[in-house]
Amino acid sequence: MSFAASVLTLYPEMFPGALGLSLAGRALEAGTWSLEAIQIRDFATDKHRTVDDTPAGGGAGMVMRADVLAKAIDQASPPGDPRPRLLMSPRGKPLTQARVRQLADGPGAVILCGRFEGVDQRLIEARGLEEVSIGDFILSGGEPAALVLLDAVVRLLPGVMGNAVSGEEESFENGLLEHPHYTRPQEFEGLPIPEVLISGNHKKIVAWRRAEAEKLTRERRPDLPGVQPLVK
Ligand code: SAH
């Protein structure tokens, strides 16, 4: 069973974009996942194919219309579609590796990309959209956010990453940031690779990496769950 992504957007040309290359691109070609980019404008009913209108109550910008978006969603995701319906939104729950993993374990996702000031609130409620943010900053549209989300999901699909183990050792998977990495040359601008890593002592290496990961996490991200209080 492959992961089926349907993206609703005013810019279908942005897809697969970066996801057509490298690991994700190869997996797309191999059928490990599928991607359908749907033009929201095709569901407009007037002759100008209008998808947005001025905000009720006044103010700057435009708002995407609930009626047009509902038609697009209902075609992409009819009742009974098991896939979660996501709305990329800076007001959403911040995306985490745990949610990414859940999505990768599921049948796919229907992803609505906002533009302008966002979408009519009634649409979010009427279609049960899960708002997802990729961080505390504002993009000009949901498309780059959808690409980010899909990139994170696709690399977890079975067979996409050559070395499946590396996925589980990654930052966030154990509630910690990852330890630092080194490779040849042995000496770079006078700096050697830490002694322990060339010791050949696997147990010591594991312990060193764990300690480095905890130190880094304590310094940079004390909010992460894997961080242990400093033993004095
Ligand atoms: N007026 C809105 C921002 C609209 S930005 C506000 O202040 O909350 C236009 C669109 O870009 C949004 O509808 C959303 O789909 C997308 N977007 C912007 N920033 C995002 C973020 N951090 N995460 C996910 N989507 C984002």
UniProtKB/TrEMBL annotation:
Function recorded in the entry: Specifically methylates guanosine-37 in various tRNAs.
Domain annotation tRNA methyltransferase TRMD/TRM10-type: ranges: 6-224
Catalysed reactions, as listed in the record: guanosine(37) in tRNA + S-adenosyl-L-methionine = N(1)-methylguanosine(37) in tRNA + S-adenosyl-L-homocysteine + H(+)
Family note: Belongs to the RNA methyltransferase TrmD family.
Keyword DNA-binding: no
Keywords: Cytoplasm, Methyltransferase, S-adenosyl-L-methionine, Transferase, tRNA processing
Binding residues annotated for S-adenosyl-L-methionine, in chain numbering: 114, 134-139
Highest classification ranks of the organism: Bacteria, Pseudomonadati, Pseudomonadota, Alphaproteobacteria, Hyphomicrobiales
A single MF term (Gene Ontology): tRNA (guanine(37)-N1)-methyltransferase activity
Native source organism of the sequence: Mesorhizobium hawassense
Name of one Pfam family that matches: tRNA_m1G_MT
Protein name stated in the entry: tRNA (guanine-N(1)-)-methyltransferase
GO biological process, one term: tRNA N1-guanine methylation
